[in-house]
Amino acid sequence: MNIILIISDTFRWDYLGCYGNNWISTPNLDRFAKRSVIFDKAYAASFPTVPHRMDLVTGRFTFTYRQWEPLPKDEVALAEILGENGYTTMLIADTPHILEDGYNFDRGFTGWEWVRGQETDRYMTDPAEVKFPCSPHKLRNPDVVKRHLRNISLRQGEADCFVAQTMLKAARWLERNYRQEKFFLWVDTFDPHEPWDPPSWYVDRYDPGYKGEEVIYPLYGQSDYLTEKELNHIKALYAGEVSLVDRWVGVLLQKIEDLGLFEDTAIVFTSDHGFYLGEHDLVGKSIISSGFLEYVPLYDELARIPLFIYLPDIKKPVRCPFFVQPPDITATIVHLAGADHSSTIQGSSLLPLIHQKRPSSRNFAVSSPSLVHGAAGIPRITFSEEKWTFICAPSSLSNEEPDGETKAVNGISRRLAGVKLKKLREKPKHELYHSPSDSAQTNNLFTEHRQIAQRLYSRLMQFLKEIEMPQKLLKYWQNL
After folding, report:
1. Per-residue model confidence as pLDDT tens digits over 175-192
2. Which domains does the chain have, with CATH numbers?
3. How far apart are CA 189 and CA 192, in angstroms?
4. Chain segment 393-420, per-residue pLDDT in tens
5. CA-wise closest residue to 419 among 478, 369, 376, 373
6. Which residues contact 290 (CB under 8 A, 6 or more apart)?
7. Is residue 115 within 8 Å of 162, Cβ to Cβ?
8. Is 289 left (phi over 0), alpha (psi -120 to 50) or beta?
9. CA atoms within 13 A on the CB side of 312
10. In this structure, are strands 365-369 and 381-384 parallel, antiparallel, or unpaired?
11. What's the rounded mean pLDDT across residues 432-456?
């Protein structure tokens, strides 16, 4: 069976109509979802961009022993497994962080193509002067925005947008290769990740008549530096990006249809994580200030992800209510390819869940930033199950806590915030939320339901031991 994997970075699950959104236009993805298996409880594992791709490439929960780093030579890569089983493998991506500066996520692919210019990509040097769309102090990194504005300076129309270029290149590759005996195509677009720059007509649909500053790459942290109108407009900018992605993923899906590939091709659409747009009084997906990075809790707006899987033998829409995570996607792709790499892959194939409609042995999800620096950066581990979400904060915080340096978030090195380096906004605390009555996760019930928290905590610790988290790191979370 041919296999196509489409990843759209920073795509919030709740901005799609098939997950209940009623104000953003996503007709192509919603139409695709109607002929696919829709996973209602798909969650990120390793967070954010590069760690997520590490999980997908390896089929492992890598947050326990890897961070934002190049793909190590000792990791068995998905493309290598498929290549050994006779697949022609192709990577087409505009996501820069998995390809720039020797990150090597192209390893094992028969061919690969990088659509240049996104975010940190050192692509263009002119024009020398660029005009910021808003006050620089509202931008997460003015230098990155300046680079981005140079990189897009030659655009002439919508087809020049990165997601459009990427999907068109994927469509053209399929035109040339669809008769291959069997192929695996990985299509990876950075949109709707910021900087948000969809054509104006996409944004005007969601915030008509706006005359203020365009905060296209907001500073990560507390949202109170934005006015109410500015915060509303960044939601419109993001929504415009979502509709832009939908438009051009739709072009690729139409090409797949035109070539008759729906008859013998499995197709996966997913993302790596979401983005806070004012929820929990936050913007972004971490707190960045003065060269430091502090992680924030991974609530559902960040941790939950969209996931559709189309299989030729599924003739009507199916909703899967079971918990799934990125390593399971890898295991599923390997299963579809008829390969076996169970000795290295920690995920479980989703085919039994789909065909037999029975849950796997893992009826929960664990989402986390990298834990390799211990408590530095204040990483919280999110444990999600049917009715409860438990967010486990480091239990050991002292002046001896390790610190470190990370490239998490956009590849730029930052010191991880720790008690020796930066006064914390507040001491991190455990959190517990009852999902049926508090989907927004705003009412922390940890004190009232400590027994439930203890049960979830025990299961989390068991899981971390099962995936062989080193004891030297596990100690930071060993006291409730």
Report:
1. 999 998 999 999 999 999
2. 2-355 (3.40.720.10), 365-477 (3.30.1120)
3. 8
4. 997 655 445 567 888 888 888 888 765 4
5. 376
6. none
7. yes
8. beta
9. 14
10. antiparallel
11. 97
